[in-house]
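Risk mitigation, structural track. In case the binding assays with manganese (II) ion fail to produce interpretable data, a predicted complex structure has been prepared as a fallback.
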Amino acid sequence: MKPALVDFHCHLDLFPDPVSAVRDAEEAGVYTLTVTTTPKAWPRNHELTHGTRHVRAALGLHPQLVAERSAEIAMWEEYLPQARYVGEVGLDAGPRYFRSLDLQKQIFTRVLQKCAEAGGKILTVHSVRTATMALDLIESQLARKGQVVLHWFTGSKSEARRAVDLGCYFSINCAMLRNDRGRDLVAALPSDRLLTETDAPFTQVGSRPTAPIDVKETVEALATLRNVTLKDLAQNIGSNLRTLLDGAGVSTDP
Ligand code: MN
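Fallback model:
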C-alpha cells in the first residue's frame, strides 16, 4: 500500500472553487488540513469538511489580518469548542505587518491561553520574522497543553532546535526547499518532527498555484535532500502525523 500524502497547511477556501478543492483532496486521499484566516470562514469550512475522511478544517485568525480584525477574537473563542485544529494563527513582523505586532502578540497570547485551557488542540503557526517571540509565547502560554506545527518556518537553526525542545513539528513546503538557507535548515531538522504542506494556493509549481496533491513534489524533494527513499520519507511523514494526533488525543482518523 502506498503511504498517504500529508498537506498539513493549505487554504482551500481561497481556491476559485472550494467545494471541488475539498473533493479533489478527499478523492486523492491526501490528509489535508485546510486553515482559515478569519473565524467568519469557520462555519462554511467546518461544514465543507464534515463527513470527509481525509480533509479537516482549522479555526484561525491570521496575524496579517489582526490589524483590521482583532475584534474577531471573540468569534474565534466562541467557535473554539467546535475545532480540534487551530490556524492560521501566529505573528508576522514583515514590513507590511510589523505595525500591528503588539496587537498580534495580544491576540496570539489569547489564542494560546484559550488552547491551553481547552487542551488537545493542534495549532498551525505562522512566525515570519518572529520565531523567537512566537516560541517564547508558545512556551509560556501554551505550556505543552497543545501540539504546535510551525508552518513555513524561516527562523534560524538555533531557533529550530529550541522549537524541537519545545515539542514542535515543522510543516515543510516546496518554496522552502528552493533556496540554500531553507534546504540547510530543513536538512538539520530531526526526522520525527517533519510534516509536509503546500500553503496552497500561495506556493507554485511551474507557474500555477499548488493544490494539496502537489505535496508529492515536496515529498520527493525532501527524500532527495535527506538521502532517503521516497517510500521511507512518505512513511516517516505518515507516522509523524499519527504521533502528532495521538499526542493530542485524537482517537479517530485524523
Ligand atoms: Mn498559510
